[in-house]
Amino acid sequence: MGSSTERVFPGAPPLVLSSYSLGTTVGFEDRVRAAAAAGFDGIGLRAENYWDAIRDGLDDDTMKAVAARHGIAVLEVEYLTAWGTPADRDAAQQEKERTVFHMARAFGVGHLNTGLLEKPPLDVVTRAFAELCDRADGLTVALEFMPYSGVPDLATAWRILDAAGRANSGLIVDVWHWARAGSAPSDLDGVPPERIVAVQLCDVSEHPMEPLRAESLGHRLPPGHGFGDPVGLLRALHEHGVEPRVVAVEVISDELVARGVDTAATVLGEAARDALIDAAEGAH
After folding, report:
1. d(CA 284, CA 264)
2. Residues 93, 96, 98: CA angle, nearest 5 degrees
3. How far apart are CA 260 and CA 150, in angstroms?
4. Which of 38, 132, 202, 259 is the most buried (most CB within 10 A)?
5. pTM higher than 0.85, yes or no?
6. Burial level of 37, CB count in 10 A (0-12/13-18/19+)?
7. What residues are paired with 246 via a beta bridge?
8. Domain range holding 30?
9. What is the CATH number of the domain that holds 68?
């Protein structure tokens, strides 16, 4: 499968099926099986998925063995929010943070995904992000901008990373957020390409829904099936010199999940491969 991403990005980053793409209630073994059968190199796992697997009697070694048996691995760990102020970092948030750190280390994932739904002042966010990076202790904290959040666009995300000054920080570029933030390839100017550590593929409908977050959490489209131009973004990232650690497919779609785990994985694998091929054909 690596050859699909190699057409666009040096190093053939693995193609990962993000956790939400298969819904929130899929068991670990079914998640792995469906992703492997659809040609993915790995899966993403949220803390909630991990806790469910533990309750089902699986430990870290067993999860790794199950994934290895199917020829894939856990390659994406998510998702930290509510780290912006001490008041937001309640006991549940801190437990989730510890779990995500543990997952990243247990599965050998060098980065973890984070975002911020709350909207504290930018200096507060920057300080809190720096502290999060310090707590991550060597893991790369990949910040995702979301147009309805306290980090609404790429420029703001890079401003936070730059001011925080932490070497173990990076950026996620997600097609849905990129499109709904009204982004353009020129927005990459000034952002060091090596700081973009993950790319997430999906697509958007022609017209935004209200509220935006509801669209993001249930009405995304497979890459190449909408109006977000994932192929154009892939080409722009290639031309900017980005070499992501992973290319993930994050299509959060109630309609697709309702069609079953195997169908969802197959549709998304085929769509991602088509988008990567199209991007490579037009890349310089």
Report:
1. 32
2. 110
3. 34
4. 202
5. yes
6. middle
7. 198
8. 2-282
9. 3.20.20.150
Cα 258 to Cα 135: distance, rounded to the nearest angstrom: 38
Residue-wise pLDDT tens for the chain (284 aa)?
455 899 899 999 999 999 999 999 999 999 999 999 999 999 999 999 999 999 999 999 999 999 999 999 999 999 999 999 999 999 999 999 999 999 999 999 999 999 999 999 999 999 999 999 999 999 999 999 999 999 999 999 999 999 999 999 999 999 999 999 999 999 999 999 999 999 999 999 999 999 999 999 999 999 999 999 999 999 999 999 999 999 999 999 999 999 999 999 999 999 999 999 999 986 65
- One-letter amino acid at 116 equals L
Report d(CA 112, CA 252) in Å as an integer: 19
- Look up residue 179 and give its amino acid: A
Closest CA to 202 of 274, 143, 268, 112: 268
Total domain count for the chain?
1
Q: Which pair of tokens denotes residue 279? A: 């991007």
The helix (run of H) or strand (run of E) holding residue 186 is none
Q: Are 9 and 284 in contact (CB under 8 A)?
A: no
